[in-house]
């Protein structure tokens, strides 16, 4: 059964009517093609009207949509001969961060990304996409491996944040994230990062300090979740909508602030309505960016990446 968000209720009602009319037409031979066509036109107009003026909080909900394509879906469609690589060689494996080698558009690449899971069992297995220290130490190991063999790195960001549990803190969560960011800035191979859903806190930026940072149109990227921000500022998660508005966490806001480099347009109604089209568009954007980055020398790539992030927030300062 298709999942609808709260603000999509009128869309859900209209689609339900269309499905019912189609069922009646198939079973009873009722000639209602014209009525179905009229309702489909109305549905498209409603989708355009709704998705052209989403609030930051509504975009956050779309970014978290359970039917939105996950890292595993992107890898399955875009990467051939994928070989998953596990473990940080220090503690263990972290299933929240899916990573490995494969072939993308004829190029050998290292690809990694947060995996939230698609049902209860897989969500628990992948810890809802919240990586532990061993996940980020695995990312460090694989980025260094990619650097050694000259493999471009692709990262897909989709997490509410790094796991904040006691065990993760005991094993050095903050240090692991810092080392991962440091490694992002050290490698000399082309590095592309894409926020495909929710980019939350240090858990997101740990694998997103890249030469090209892209976001899907209805994804979000912020230092903390709206609920977390509201709980700090208003002492209540009930003000999450106001927090989302103030945080400027949408792709449009972040492009304006020059935190990201490119916005990838989503199909009408969001990535969850046309996942195949979305993943194809993402693949095209990654291929284009890789082609541009391959023109740079390794040392130049690293220096440009460092300069890019050091300059963030300095506009207008003397």
What does this structure look like?
The structure is a single chain. A hairpin with a 2-residue loop joins strand 2 and strand 3. The chain has about 325 residues and is an alpha/beta fold. The relative contact order is 0.12. The protein has helices at about 10-30, 35-50, 55-65, 70-80, 120-125, 135-150, 165-170, 175-185, 200-205, 225-235, 240-245, 250-255, 275-295, 300-310, and strands at about 80-85, 95-105, 105-115, 155-160, 190-200, 210-215, 220, 260-265. The chain folds into two domains: about 5-55; about 60-310, 2-enoyl-CoA Hydratase, Chain A, domain 1. It starts with 8 loop residues before the first helix and ends in an 8-residue tail after the last helix. The protein is built from 14 helices and eight strands. Strands 1, 2, 3, 4, 5, 6, 7 and 8 form an eight-stranded mixed sheet that branches.
From the coordinates shown, what is the CATH architecture of the largest domain? Alpha-Beta Complex
Helicity level, as a percent range? 40-55%
In what range is the share of β-strand residues? 15-25%
Number of domains: 2
- E-strand count: 8
Distance between the termini: 56 Å
Query: What letter string, H or E per element, gives the SSE order?
Result: HHHHEEEHHEHHEHEEHHHEHH
**What Rg is obtained from the alpha carbons, in whole angstroms?**
21 Å
Structural classification: alpha/beta
CATH topology of the largest domain: 2-enoyl-CoA Hydratase, Chain A, domain 1
Layout of helices and strands:
Blueprint: H1 9-28, H2 33-51, H3 56-63, H4 71-78, E1 80-84, E2 97-104, E3 107-114, H5 120-125, H6 133-149, E4 153-159, H7 166-170, H8 173-186, E5 191-200, H9 201-205, E6 212-216, E7 220-222, H10 226-233, H11 240-247, H12 251-256, E8 262-264, H13 275-293, H14 298-310
Helix pairs in contact: 1-2, 3-11, 4-13, 6-8, 10-11
